Every structure is written in structure tokens, then in C-alpha cells.
Amino acid sequence: MGKSHEQIDATLDAFIRAQQMFFVATAPLDTGGNVNLSPKGLDTLRVLEPRTLVYLDYVGSGAETIAHLRENGRIVVMLCAFQGAPRIVRFHGRGQVLEPQDGEFNQLRTLFSAEPAARAIIRLSITRIADSCGYGVPRYEFEGYRSQLSDWGARKGVQGLLEYQDDNNRVSLDGLPALRWPEANDPDPDRNG
Is residue 55 part of a domain? Predict the structure, then answer.
């Protein structure tokens, strides 16, 4: 049933590329804090090296993953097959947040399409790869990606997206620091403290 992998080989890489969505889970160190689980899609996951994944973190309503990674680095990415043979694969590891002001961001950003608007790239250094049967995962047909995120970003425009992130992505639900750039550019650094 379950199997461990030392690294992402050609077969596992093909499985990753065939999936239309994946899930990301993180948690704060505080046991009273909120565990976060986010679905991701829009062709935003890439294999960078045999033990490294990166994904495009687009502008969204919360910044839990970013905040948790800044605090403790723990992350798991899970993919499960909704079509074809049943399979679930989990990539456990340490995550790093790369924001647009970070040197590697622009270099890695070229791996993804221009849309959706990105606030960060998450790099996962894998410490464990494990798969399981996936027999309980139902079959679903992929109809296509939704356009709402790109449409919303286009309506907001560059300045509107910056303001949105400044208002919504500075801290997590539990008050942990998330995006760094708003803090660095804030004329009133005490407004969130």
C-alpha cells in the first residue's frame, strides 16, 4: 500500500504534472493556533530539483501559509489523483517564502504564466516523500480552471492588489507576521501592533 521515495523520479514527476490541483498544509507552533489547509490549482506547481518543489502563491484573502513558514518552516504538499489510478502523494519538508523583493523570486517567476498575480513563491525542501493508495478518493472530471482569480486581479490592477495585500496579508489569523514588504514600506509601522 504505502511507499516512500528518496526523490522525485520521472514517474513521480509525471504524476505531479498530471494533477490539476494540490493541497498545502501548515500550522503555527502555538497549539491553540489555527491549522491551515489550502487547495491550489491554476498550474502553479513545479519540480525544481529531485528534492525541491516550488509553487506560485497568488494574491489571496489570507496569508496563513506564509506566516506559518516564517515562524517554523513546516509544510506538507499533498496531491491526489481524481482521475486514473488511485494515488495520494505527500511531500513533507521545510518551506521558504520568496517575495518579489527577494532575488530568487524573479528568476523563479519565469517558470509560471503571467497570471494569476503572485505575492510570493514558496520553495519546499523535501525531507520525506510518501504515497498511499488513494482508494477512498472519488473520481472527478476536470472541466477547466476558473477565471475569477485572474478577473479579480485585473479589476483591482497593480495598485489595487498592492493595497489589498497591505490590508489583508500582513498578518495571519493568529497575528503572526506574514508578508514582509508591506511592513518595510509602511510609514506607520505601529498600526498593526
Answer: yes
Q: Are 54 and 48 in contact (CB under 8 A)?
A: yes
Query: What are the C-alpha distances in Å from 9 to residues 3, 40, 49, 88, 124?
Result: 14, 22, 10, 16, 16
d(CA 171, CA 92): 24
| Whether the Cβ atoms of residue 97 and residue 70 lie closer than 8 Å to each other | yes
Q: Are 75 and 94 in contact (CB under 8 A)?
A: yes
Domain containing 77 equals 3-184
Question: Distances in Å between the alpha carbon of 38 and those of 21, 43, 63?
Answer: 10, 15, 10
Amino acid at 169: N
Please give the tally of structural domains in the chain: 1
> pTM, whole model, 2 decimals?
0.91
Please state the separation of Cα 133 from the chain's center in Å: 24
pLDDT tens digits for 89-131?
999 999 999 999 999 999 999 999 988 789 999 999 999 999 9
**Is 189 inside a domain boundary?**
no
CATH of the domain at 62: 2.30.110.10
